[in-house]
Design goal:
DNA-binding; homodimer; alpha/beta; 12 strands; 6-stranded mixed sheet; elongated
Chain lengths: 340, 340
DNA sequence: CTGTTAGCGCTTTCAG
DNA sequence: CTGAAAGCGCTAACAG
């Protein structure tokens, strides 16, 4: 293995000088600098990060921790992160975590001790609190994206789920819908609660009836949505909701499958509006293109990398917080009741 | 920061003893072991990987390098890798690379110098040769998945593209097809050449006509497939191929869109068979479910992690090579001409 | 079974 | 502008 020492010998200088050349220090005689550079390129020398990390206490690399990294949901997020990594000249290491506590700890301990010096965590759960607290108390820099906590001390990037959900209901209202039911996913995720709140607020604001029946819990398998949608279609016409708003694409897809399975059509017989509106769905789906609230995940991904870089460079001083607004993505699953 | 030294002080032992406890050495007095463990958990001490890596020359982590990691194509591959990582208790770091040489070098140099001690590279191109040679000459352990080289010295996992393509043609032949055209992607990828060869061999074997017209080059944008498919549909019935075999899902999807755009149907008017047959397509597609040759990407992903682990543990001695067979995945895009 | 010592490869004072 | 020396945190001989 080629080391500074060997390069130094070959160039007839001291290791310190080699180090200076590597790190682009000014105070080196140009002639010597060239001599050292020549030896470096001839020997193919490259500095050992472990040794560097040990003395500098930094590596310049960023870790991104995501549960189920492989899901198509992350398509845009990963693209954004990748583009930012290229732009900022950073090494970004993606880790695909499971829910298992032990495994999560393993990665945290590995990464935070000399491998990377900052971290991005997507979609933390309540159970991640010990990890977050640990990072925080050891002053390890990190950014949370869509986290479950409510702590302004953390660097975080959020999505305005509340307004997004409100806009969904308003959009449905504009299209003449009043009987709007919510298919709500896992309440242990803060994002779902926010979407629920937005839904409720907008329903009230629009003066629509809001009873417990308006909210259908899809807390377990998303296939519950299939059954729930069928149940709705079996209701008499005059009582049946005219629109279903779902907290995720997955639930929307299942609901639509349930509706179609009974011979009904979307949006002719009932409208469906989703939250997420991702370009890449996890399940096979050939129904009408979803209308829904779209999150700017490419931007969020890009911003997360560039923000953490700037925090590390001292250009941003923490706590950093930014909230992204959603947009309405028009597809084919919402019918305008005002027409015809 | 808590170090071995501090733990040693607090436990009234030497750093060596602490090190022994951490690394689970046998020769430590049980009483002292407990005392040290207690201090470790009280102080929240965790060993610094940079320092460890420096001494041990290994970290136990594995890097996975993939171009366009975000593509849904990698869904099953990543799942397999993740499951294997959990099973083998390894940290796996995924890197999303671009084609830019400089960026690729940056990652290589970062990773190979004290961060990970083995590597998996998916789908290397000819231009990656310097990188591979470098890894090889520095004796850095790595496995290639579907590489572009032909070197039995490398550890590698391959897919039997040749037989896969042959099986596709045979399957079409069994279904009564004789005029089968190939839509072939980028010839700079070895996998495509192998699929081409398999196609040619099987066509010859079946005694079917094989002229240059049988092979349509889709070397640029896959949208060329759209036009090419339209051109085929405009041919007179008696000359028109009865089936198109494509070297990728992307090409198949475009071809089918081209066919449908002219008002023709798949498979009634023409059959389409693909290679890849992934569960997750990158583009929106609502046509009939693809019939095609499926690669066992989950298994490949799982095996890559477990094989490199076993190589590192000395349980497998390199060069390691394994070829996976493909299967036929039946969808809706191939019509049986023997019926009716 | 335990402690002392040296050194992994690098950077960074501090002298010169 | 350059070199010598010390040390980052850890482990692996080697004594004891």
């Amino acid at each position: 293995m080629v080391t500074v020492k060997k390069v130094a010998e070959l160039a007839n200088v001291s290791p310190s000088t080699v180090s200076r050349v590597i790190n682009g220090a000014e105070n080196v005689n140009p002639e010597i600098r060239e001599r050292v550079k020549k030896v470096i390129s001839e020997t193919g020398y490259f500095p050992n990060n472990a040794a560097r990390s040990l003395v500098n206490r930094k590596t310049g690399a960023i870790a991104v921790l995501i549960r189920n990294l492989h899901k198509p949901f992350f398509y845009d997020l990963l693209r954004g992160m990748k583009d930012a990594a290229t732009a900022m000249h950073k090494c970004v290491l993606f880790c695909n975590l499971s829910d298992e506590k032990e495994e999560r700890n393993k990665y945290m301990q590995f990464l935070t001790n000399g491998i990377v010096d900052s971290m991005i965590l997507y979609g933390t759960l309540y159970t991640d609190w010990p990890i977050i607290e640990n990072l925080s108390s050891s002053r390890f820099p990190f950014i949370l994206i869509e986290n479950n906590f409510d702590n302004s001390q953390f660097n975080q990037i959020l999505i305005n789920n509340f307004d997004g959900a409100m806009n969904a209901v308003r959009f449905l209202a504009e299209n003449g819908h009043e009987r709007i039911v919510l298919f709500m996913g896992n309440p242990n995720k803060k994002v779902n609660l926010e979407r629920l709140n937005g839904y409720q607020r907008a329903m009230t604001e629009c003066g629509f009836t809001l009873t417990p029946d308006n909210i259908v819990n899809i807390f377990g398998d998303s296939s519950q949505a299939f059954d729930a949608a069928q149940a709705i279609m079996r209701m008499p016409d005059e009582k049946r909701p005219t629109a279903i708003f779902t907290t995720s694409d997955k639930i929307a897809v299942q609901a639509i499958k349930g509706i179609l399975s009974l011979g009904f059509r979307v949006p002719e017989d009932i409208s469906v509006m989703t939250f997420d509106s991702q370009s890449h769905l996890e399940e096979e789906y050939k129904g009408p293109t979803l209308t829904g609230i779209k999150q700017p995940l490419y931007d969020v991904g890009y911003e997360s990398i560039s923000a953490i870089s700037e925090i590390m460079d001292g250009k941003i001083k923490p706590p950093y917080s930014r909230t992204y607004e959603t947009t309405i993505q028009k597809g084919e699953t919402v019918r305008n009741l005002n027409e015809g």
